[in-house]
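User:
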Amino acid sequence: MCGLAGFASINGSTLCADSHRVLHRMVRGIAHRGPDDEQLLCTDSIALGFTRLSLNDPHGGRQPFVSEDGQVLLVANGEVYNHRELAAQLPAGTRFRSGSDCEVLLHLYLEEGKGFLDRVRGMFAVAIFDLRKGRLLLARDRFGIKPLFLTRNDRSIVFASEIKSLLEHPECPRAVDWESALTDQALSAAPVLEQGRPTTWFRGIEHVPSGTIHEIDLRTGEASSHRYWHMPEVSGDSAASDAEYVETYRDLLASSVNECVTADAEIGLFLSGGIDSASVAALAAHTGLHTFTTLTGSTLANGDSEYAHRVARFLDLPNHQVLLPSEQAPDAEEWKRLLWLLETPQCGPEQFYKYQLHRYAKSVRPELKGIMLGAGADEFNGGYSVELAGGGDWSDFLANVKDMALKSAFGRRPALTSWWEDPALPLIGEEALHALTGTSLGDPYRAFLGWKCRDTEQYNCWHEDRTSAGNAIESRVPFLDHRIVELLASIPVSRREHLLWDKRILRLAMRDLLPLDVVNRPKVAFYNGDGVHRTQRTFVKMLAQNENALLEEALAAKGAREYVNAANAREWLRRLETNPQSGRVELLLRLVNLGLLEQMTQQAALPSTPYAIGEMPTAVDVKDWEEAKMEIESRSLGRQPLDGSLVLKLGENVMILDSTGDQWTSYIALDGQLEYVVDGYAEPCWLEFLREVDGERSIEKIVNGLRSGNDGVDRLICEALDFGILTVVEHTGSATTDQV
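Assistant: Predicted structure:
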């Protein structure tokens, strides 16, 4: 993982007099990507900078790589996993000056021109100055794992690994693109299949397209693009059996994991406890790599942290249960530093936790320079099929995906909606709809894959790159080996349900390498799901701290004044403070992020590169989960053993409503809205306890008087305190407290 930055003049003009100083600022802006080396090169017409994180050939491998005649210069960020194989195929006598995996790219370009990436396997962003032809070539890997951005005008072109580096150039626009952002599905999370190119969130700044070589003639300014990779099409059936598909898949995944774990530096793994990262752990276990797991109230509640511990123990791998208490969030200034590192409004709780997990890993393993992830498995292995089926089966999944495709089509041409008013009897055909909107309904799953390709680049690869890069670590993603994705995409239509429903191909491939309960464990969200209310509550508090400081700063941005209803945004936050589950915290946070990004971008001196954000995490030493369970719960939930002398009352705006027709059912209302059902048949002691809470008697007195026993009531009381359903009135002992 490294950083690239550079610029060049167009139409024969010369660079500005202070070009070396500009380049230095650009490279300093991405110094976190490569603390091991820094190189700057300036001539009258080109400037090229590079920061290096050395995972291969740490003592050689300095970039840029230069041809023997000095006329071709290449810099690359990433990894070429099959570099030895490619080097062996070059003409005899080809001279390498380093052991770097990326040097082979220079020789491939000299031999094959624009075809130089066709056989390359890996993740990379590449910039080539070909002075012989007066051309600049910019290229990225097939899924956009490694970032590369550009901006240009009639006089110059500027490129860099991160947007903050581009912004240091005086000719780069400094404007957040509110219109593009607000209408992008990645930000609004609308139930549509977004198929367009990913957005950069900034006006006048573009991605170098993934799977593409973008070429600029520096003499004329003319640009052209060569797409060197496309997702393969499905053609008919296949002679291969399901078992052969599974075997091929497992061999490819094992090969990819082996390549990702190979380096001249330490590689670790983020182990979530799900089948994806557990599979990577099983295939890399022979290396004895260290694994790192997020321990929060959410991962405790959804079982992730416990399963990660069990997987690591089964494979005899070191496992660090990294404590990230859900009540801890960055303050306003720390949040802005994290946002500036991420440079995307999609920055949220997940990104904060990922950043802190990388930070801890680097602190305890200083030589660690790479982290393997399970990213990309859900997107292409069928990981979202169950969720999108809405409780149904594969046919329901396809029907719902088709409905999302229809919404996408009608979003482009709303007037067509009337002709499809009855989905069972549409008055215009699918071919006509495709011609009028560009949306094809013939194969909904292909449309789904297109959406997930975009989503992978726009969200997953983006934030995984920045959260690791901010800690001088490279993220590696074995599931995004293009051979694996091509195999999955080529599964015939008639075989998809057998192999892709609920990631069956992966589960079958791993059934003899992992315990069956791990193999068959359902997918759970990283921090959503059970226990998510703790995270929501914490980030609502972050937005509301210091009299809504972050929200007010964001609302003061020019774009926010134009596009955001400030009064409603403030009211939304007020309601979230009262009940964090009353709305989507992330949606409001994304608007705040846009405003903050605009404010920071407009500063004369851009923010400096962030490093430490929040307190350094610690870990819980877990030898046996059951033995450590009490400490785990206490530390991850910030919860002490329940004090029976506490006196409780219902929280503000909370009411317990008894059912008129069923004495064993009650309802909990928050702000006049029914939010929870209390089932007395399943938990009679809890129903009885709630009915007895009077603000006068202690917990101990009420519990001792329960006719239905007290099994599990302590846990339910603690959860009710977390939700604000119950609050503390007073402490009858020697101290007073506001919460447990």
